[in-house]
Amino acid sequence: MNKDSQNRQVPLPLEGVRVLDFTQVMLGPCCTQVLGDYGADVIKVERVGLGDLSRWSIGSDPDGGNNPVFASLNRNKRSITLDLKSEAGKKSVRQMISTIDVVVNNFRPGVMERMGLGYEDLHKINPRIIFAVGTGFGLAGPYADKGGQDVLAQAMSGAMHRRADTRQPVSIYPTALADYSAGMHLVQGILLALLQRQKTGEGQQVSVSLFNSMLAMQMQEAAMLMMRDRELNWAAMPLSGVFETTDSNIVMIGAFKRNPLRNICQALGLPDLSEDGRYATLEEQTRNRDELQAIFRERFAGNSTSHWLKQLDAVDILCAPVLTLGEALSDPQTEYNRMIVNLPPTKGGPVRLVASPIDMSNAPFSVWLAPPRLGEHTEEVLDECTASAAA
Q1: How many angstroms separate the most distant Cα atoms in the chain?
Q2: Is the Cα torsion angle 323, 324, 330, 335 positive or negative in sign?
Q3: Are 22 and 57 in contact (CB under 8 A)?
Q4: Whether the Cβ atoms of residue 266 and residue 338 lie closer than 8 Å to each other
Q5: Residues sharing a CB contact under 8 Å with residue 169, sequence separation 6 or more, in sequence order
Q6: Are 287 and 236 in contact (CB under 8 A)?
């Protein structure tokens, strides 16, 4: 069934779970979008008149606050606007809490507490509440009050410093690795807390940080450094790399075989360099990596990417073309995997989003709510709150 047109024909895993979402930008919204994608009723609380910072993060857009950045992170949610600096706004939150299962925020530590909406405050109203927090560096510690952001986490976790060639300048990775990984860790924490609540009847606080998520992503490299005092750099392995061809670029991974260099040489039409003492072992290959990579570069530069893909595939060496994002989005595998969602167009143009990467045979992903307009559901949700209080 096409992801674009699915209806909610079967119960989804999180149906009946109600989420009060105070998050903005990416860490929190990518977490709560996953919850919404699989059935949770996600109520997005936004600032009156402004909303989520990502509504305006790219400047002017034909669709205003529903620009592509915001839309990519906020389907399957309802938006309400509340002034959380006012007593009326805080009262509305407290009235809702008895009907809420999960509260999510990615403010700096202490912000929710200063508003009287911290875990201890809300737990008194609803002991089953799960209070999920995403921060930059943690709820406590020397950097707890420091502003957290994806690039800062890349830098302070050591990830930015590590690169394939240390002669190249340190640079920012162009995709929000820390935000996305921390958001997915927050999803995991929430699901674990929901499972534990089934056993204990009690909610709890769950927290993740950008910093911790980036450290966790480097678990192999960290273990090697701490246990053997050795650097492990997968991008600098001697038989791997990105190479320019006559028409584009190709990436090759020479690993997971008894003698990958022999197979690489076979594919590239080279004499078997593994018989050369300078390249006979991984240690020697690493020591002479520059010379070995120069040989590879010269050979790859002599023919097209498609030619070398066929040659390397024939000897079972891992390889792939280096695609642009646009090429990846139009790739036949992307279409086969149903990874693009088409929603009804708006005044800004087409609404095309990346679908959920999770495939469940009995709980298919679908979009039943388009990314909401700022405050679109305020009256609806507050009326539900009033009805619940009266019941």
Answers
A1: 83
A2: positive
A3: no
A4: no
A5: none
A6: no
- Reported as a pLDDT band with limits 50, 70 and 90, residue 387 is confident
| Residue 148 DSSP symbol | P
Q: Which positions ≥6 away from 385 have C-beta within 8 Å? A: 92, 95, 96, 99
Per the CB < 8 A criterion, the answer to whether 42 and 75 are in contact is: no
Q: Can you say whether residue 366 is alpha, beta or left, with left for phi > 0 and alpha for psi between -120 and 50 degrees?
A: beta
- What the block records as the tokens of 260 is 């990958």
**Radius of gyration for the chain, computed over Cα atoms and rounded to the nearest angstrom:** 25
In 325-365, beta strands by DSSP E: 340-346, 349-354
**249-253 vs 241-244, strand pairing mode:** antiparallel
| DSSP code at position 386 | H
CA distances from 368 to 40, 74, 220, 226, 343 (A): 12, 12, 40, 48, 10
Residue 21's nearest CA partner among 76, 87, 66, 58 is 76
Cβ–Cβ under 8 Å, residues 95 and 126: no
Give the whole-angstrom CA distance, residue 74 versus residue 53. Answer: 12
Q: Distance between CA atoms of 214 and 86, rounded to whole angstroms? A: 36
Is 179 annotated in the active site? yes
Identify the active-site residue in 83, 179, 229, 272. Answer: 179
Residue ranges and CATH numbers for the domains of the chain are: 3-219+330-390 (3.40.50.10540), 249-321 (no CATH)
The pLDDT of residue 2 is above 60: no
Q: Which two tokens stand for residue 167?
A: 């002669």
Burial level of 257, CB count in 10 A (0-12/13-18/19+)?
Answer: middle
User: What does the alpha-carbon distance between residue 77 and residue 96 come to, in Å, rounded to a whole number?
Assistant: 16
The token pair at 79 is 């938006």
Residues 82-135: tens digit of each pLDDT: 999 999 999 999 999 999 999 999 999 999 999 999 999 999 999 999 999 999
d(CA 130, CA 175): 30
